[in-house]
């Protein structure tokens, strides 16, 4: 299966009538493996900051998480495995695998829990595959 299929068929799939706003799979080096059409254009330093937070949990909390110039307030995640952010009625979930970051961005009416489930399930699957 191509990386784009993971985006199209899994991350952007219908979840109880709701959909992620956008999603992507990005290598730990910042290279885009696949992304949805409207995933934000991010800066390399934003990915570096996110990777650093996985290595040093809590490092993004004081400044916030930035992606595509949009600032998210960092909320409880799983240190070293999942970062969650909130902005207005939406937010972001990022799951780290051995080689990549799985991004899911949502807005109401999708709930944070639905986004977490989609992103983390995909990330867990990729970890099990050694990716």
Automatic annotation (TrEMBL):
Which InterPro entries would you find in this protein's record?
Answer: PFN, PFN_euk, PFN_sf, Profilin_CS
Is Cytoplasm one of the keywords?
yes
> Signal peptide location in the record?
none
Q: Which GO terms describe its molecular function?
A: actin monomer binding
UniProt keyword terms in alphabetical order: Actin-binding, Cytoplasm, Cytoskeleton
The keyword Iron belongs to this UniProt entry's keyword annotation = no
Please give the PROSITE patterns that the UniProt record associates with this protein: PROFILIN
**Cellular component GO terms held in the UniProt record:** cell cortex; cytoskeleton
Q: Name one Pfam family in it.
A: Profilin
Compartments where found: Cytoplasm, Cytoskeleton
Function as written in the Swiss-Prot or TrEMBL entry: Binds to actin and affects the structure of the cytoskeleton. At high concentrations, profilin prevents the polymerization of actin, whereas it enhances it at low concentrations.
Family that this chain belongs to: Belongs to the profilin family.
Self-association and partners: Occurs in many kinds of cells as a complex with monomeric actin in a 1:1 ratio.
The protein's name in its UniProt record? Profilin
Q: What is the lineage of its organism?
A: Eukaryota, Viridiplantae, Streptophyta, Embryophyta, Tracheophyta
């Amino acid at each position: 299966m191509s990386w784009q299929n993971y985006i199209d068929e899994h991350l952007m799939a219908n979840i109880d009538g709701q959909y992620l706003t956008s999603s992507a799979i990005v290598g730990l080096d910042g290279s885009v493996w696949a992304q949805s059409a409207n995933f934000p254009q991010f800066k390399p330093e934003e990915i570096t900051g996110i990777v650093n937070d996985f290595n040093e949990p809590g490092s993004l909390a004081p400044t916030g998480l930035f992606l595509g110039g949009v600032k998210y307030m960092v909320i409880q995640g799983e240190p070293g495995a999942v970062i969650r952010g909130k902005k207005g009625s939406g937010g972001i979930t990022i799951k780290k695998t051995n080689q990549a970051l799985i991004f899911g961005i949502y807005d109401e009416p999708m709930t944070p829990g639905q986004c977490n489930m989609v992103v983390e399930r995909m990330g867990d699957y990729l970890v099990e595959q050694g990716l």
